[in-house]
Design brief:
- It comes from Tagetes erecta (African marigold).
- This is DUF676 domain-containing protein.
- InterPro entries: AB_hydrolase_fold, DUF676_lipase-like, Lipase-like.
- With about 450 residues, the chain is of the alpha/beta class.
- It is built from 14 helices and eleven strands.
- β6 and β7 form a beta hairpin.
- α2 crosses α7, α5 packs across α6 and α6 packs across α9.
- The chain is globular, with a radius of gyration of 21 Å.
């Protein structure tokens, strides 16, 4: 793999709060990077909590059997296309919307979202809930899951000749899997036009509570309560429960002198053109829980530094309960992310002798580098707060209404997602008409 470039210039300091449109922000197409370049008293208590929070305590055997059944009976995920009033499709969809579930989950997590999107979106959309990474398959690594998703998307595109555009909607770990997949699916066109994803025009890339910066660091994995000792021992314990994916999320994967996967995914390298692939999308949107999400912290899900976090409003946007703030963050010019020598030394120390000091040093270096890489692109960031809901501690699953009975508090978020997709589709059609008339 080509080594990541080191910084040769200092990125221009930009204050997001001075440049962002808040609360009523509309996401305009942004320029992409043009160059491919409860307290725990013992480790046993922590281990149980870790497995329980990932949803595998007590249901491993049942869900594994269920996953095996799904993998043998369904070679592809579920298709959903809006139909006409008489129940018969009167036109072929041309916009593929891929839904990607999170860790130890399945396409059934999207049942409510599929229903709402089918009701709200036009007939030009083909909804596809991915099934290539169900349940324990998500433990084998983000890269392996990303390649499987890429192959699955290729099959879908090949089976539908009418498709011209593509978008992704992903929850939690699914956002990282989707980011890897689009890097694999990316095709460079020329310097004047954005590249394509799976041979299609890329429109929207939307994530819900995704740990874009990993889960290492103070309160990035909130159920550890910010306790330094728990955060220190979490990294070596994680792979026991969530396999190779765990080491990638904690940034300890690979040899000390090799950048961790999540850092490589903020740049272009021989592995894939990750940042160019994200830049090919006309719109990139992050939905982040500001509190009560025990799995994914606000910084990592919204790609922000600690200093960039502002206290969110308590009132919801009109018509979208629990959606409290929207801002557009324009691209921040920089030379991209790197893996400097001090990062390699810090990684080796964090892997071999994980003291609180060297662990903090390593994740601080990595977080800054990943943010620099990802902030080369413009993002629309949507803050979600379930502080007034009946079960606020279900925030991680509320945000995409995993279960309609338990997590219905997130219905306003799903409505916001649907209306955002509709707005973007209209903007795209308008810009296409203008371009055609010139």
């Amino acid at each position: 793999m080509a080594s990541l470039l080191h910084y040769t210039t200092t990125p221009t300091p930009t204050s997001p709060l001075n440049n962002n449109l808040r609360r009523n922000a509309n996401l305009a197409p942004s320029n992409s990077n043009p160059n491919p370049n409860p307290n725990f008293c013992s480790s046993c208590g922590f281990s149980w909590a870790f497995s329980n929070c990932f949803g595998i305590h007590g249901i491993w055997k049942h869900q594994s059997l269920r996953a095996q059944a799904m993998s043998t009976t369904h070679s592809m995920g579920s298709f959903t296309s809006p139909r006409g009033a008489n129940g018969v499709k009167d036109e072929e969809p041309d916009h593929l919307l891929v839904l990607v579930h999170g860790i130890y989950a399945s396409p059934s997590d999207w049942r409510y979202v599929e229903s709402e999107l089918k009701r709200r979106l036009g007939r030009q959309f083909l909804l596809y809930a991915s099934s290539s990474n169900t349940y324990s398959k998500t433990f084998a690594g983000i890269d392996g899951a990303g390649k499987r998703l890429a192959d699955e998307v290729k099959q879908v595109v090949k089976s539908r000749e009418s498709l011209k555009r593509i978008s992704f909607l992903a929850h939690s770990l699914g956002g990282l899997i989707a980011r890897y997949a689009v890097g694999v699916l990316y095709t460079h066109i020329d310097d004047k036009a954005a590249g394509q994803i799976a041979g299609l025009e890329a429109i929207s890339f939307i994530t819900l509570a995704t740990p874009h910066l990993g889960v290492r660091g103070n309160k990035q994995l909130p159920f550890l309560l910010g306790v330094p000792m728990l955060e220190k021992i979490a990294a070596p314990i994680a792979p026991i429960f969530v396999g190779r994916t765990g080491s990638q999320l904690f940034l300890t994967d690979g040899k000390p002198d090799k950048p961790p996967l999540l850092l490589r995914m903020t740049t272009d390298c021989e592995e894939a053109y990750f940042i160019s692939a994200l830049g090919a999308f006309k719109y990139r949107i992050l939905y982040a829980n500001v509190s009560y999400d025990h799995m994914v912290g606000r910084r990592t899900s919204s790609i922000r530094r600690e200093s960039e976090l502002v206290k969110p409003p308590f009132t919801s946007l009109d018509g979208y309960k629990h959606v409290v703030d929207v801002e557009y963050c324009p691209p921040v010019p920089s030379t991209g992310s790197s893996f400097p020598p001090e990062a390699a030394r810090a990684k080796e120390a964090a892997q071999n002798v994980p003291t609180t000091q060297n662990t903090v040093e390593y994740h601080e270096i990595m977080e800054e580098e990943m943010i620099r890489g990802l902030q080369q692109l413009g993002w629309k960031k949507v803050d979600v707060s379930f502080h007034s809901s009946f079960w606020p501690f279900f925030a991680h699953n509320n945000i995409h209404v995993k279960d309609e009975w338990f997590h219905k508090a997130g219905a306003g978020v799903v409505a916001h997602v649907a209306d955002t997709i509709i707005q973007q589709e209209k903007q795209h059609q308008t810009s296409s008409l203008i371009s055609a008339s010139l």
